[in-house]
Amino acid sequence: MRYYTEDYLRTEDGAEIWHAVLGEGEPALVMCDGLGCAGFAWKHLIRHLVPQHRILRFNYRGHGRSGLATEPERTGIGYFADDLARLLEATKIRQAVILGHSMGVQVAFEFHRRHPERCLALVPICGSYGNPLDTVHDNPGMKALFPFLVAAVEKAPRLSRGLTKAIMPSELAYQFARFTEINRHLVRREDFEPYFTHLAQMDVGVFLRTLESAANHTAWDHLGKVDVPTLIVAADHDRFTPMWLSERMHHAVPDSEMLVVRSGTHTAIIEMPELIALRIERFLKERLAPRQAA
Q1: 194 pLDDT exceeds 90?
Q2: No. of H helices and E strands in the chain?
Q3: Count of CB atoms within 10 A of residue 199's CB?
Q4: What is the mean pLDDT of the chain?
Q5: How far is residue 46's CA from residue 140's CA, in Å, rounded to a whole number?
Q6: Predicted local confidence at residue 285, as pLDDT
Q7: H or E segment at 20?
C-alpha cells in the first residue's frame, strides 16, 4: 500500500489544520486549493503524480476538516500561507514545489513572498495573482456587488445559511455550472458535486471573509521577484480567471513557462489531468533537476 498519513496541526491562535501526506518520492509537492474547496479538484492530478512524489494536501482554516482560530476573523491568504509553512515544518518537508489552483495561486505566491527558502518551484493553475473580483468573467461589476452581499448575509445570517444549504447541492446549481463554467463533456458529475456539497456545509461568514481577503490581496508587486522555476497553467475557456491574466503573469515572472490547455475551463485539472501532469513532470525534470544537481 502506498504511504499515507493524516493528522491535525493546532496553530498558536487555535486553528486546527487538517493535512495528509501521500507517497514518498522527491521533490515534494503541495496542493493549494481554491476558495470553498477541500481537495476535490486535485483527485485525478494526484493519481498521476503520487507514484513519483511525496504530496502534501491540507484544508485551509474554515474549509473541509480544518477549524477556525479562536478569533474567527483570522483567516485569509496570509494566514493560509503561514499555515502551510507550519505544516512543512511539522511534516519534515524542508522544501516543496507549490501548486495552486484558482485562489490557491494567490496562496502560492504569498507563500513564496513570506517563505522563499521553503519554495523549490511554483505551478500556478487557472488562477489570478490577485484581486480576482476585478476580473471574474471579465466583469468588474462583481466587486461592486460584494459589499451588498456581505450586508445581506450580516442582516439575515440564518436565512443566508438556509438558502446556501438548499441551493448549493441542487440540480439547478449543478446544471448552471455544467452549461456555463465547465467543459461538460470532460467533467463527470461525481467529480464536481463534492464542491457544491462542501459549499453547502461551509459557514457563509467564513466564505465571505475568505473571499474578501482574496479580493483585496495581490502579488503583482512580487511577481518580478520570483526566483524559482515557475510553470503557469492556463485554460483558453476559463471564465473565472481569464487567460490574459496568466499571460500577464507569464510576462511578469522571470523565466517562467506557460501551458495553455485547449478547450479547458477553470476546472482544467479535472478535465485534462494527464496532460497537465505530464507537463509538470517535464517541467520538474528540465528545470528543477539541474538546479538540485548543481
Answers
A1: no
A2: 12, 8
A3: 20
A4: 89
A5: 34
A6: 96
A7: strand 16-22
- Please give the residue that has the higher pLDDT: either 196 or 235: 235
Sign of CA dihedral 37, 74, 123, 242: positive
Mean of pLDDT values over 167-181: 57
CATH 3.40.50.720 for domain 4-293 = no
> What count of residues does the chain have?
294
Predicted local distance difference test score (pLDDT) of residue 1? 44
DSSP assignment string, 46-72: HHHHTTT--EEEEPPTTSTT----SST
Rounded to whole angstroms, the Cα distance separating 155 from 161 reads: 12
Q: Is the pLDDT of residue 145 over 90?
A: no
Residue 1's SS3 state is coil
- Residue 46 burial by CB count (10 A; 0-12/13-18/19+): exposed, middle or buried? buried
Q: Which of 73, 207, 210 is nearest to 153 (CA)?
A: 207
Domain edges within the chain? 4-293
Predicted pLDDT of residue 163:
53
At 289 the pLDDT is 73
State the residue for C-alpha cell 507514484: 51
Q: DSSP string of 119-136?
A: EEEEEEES--SB-GGGTG
Distance CA 184, CA 19 (A): 31
CA distance 87 to 81: 10
Spatial separation of the C-alpha atoms in residues 1 and 82, rounded to whole Å = 32
| 3-state SS, residue 19 | strand
Look at 136 and 249; give whichever has higher pLDDT: 249
Nearest to 228 by CA among 81, 110, 119, 88: 119
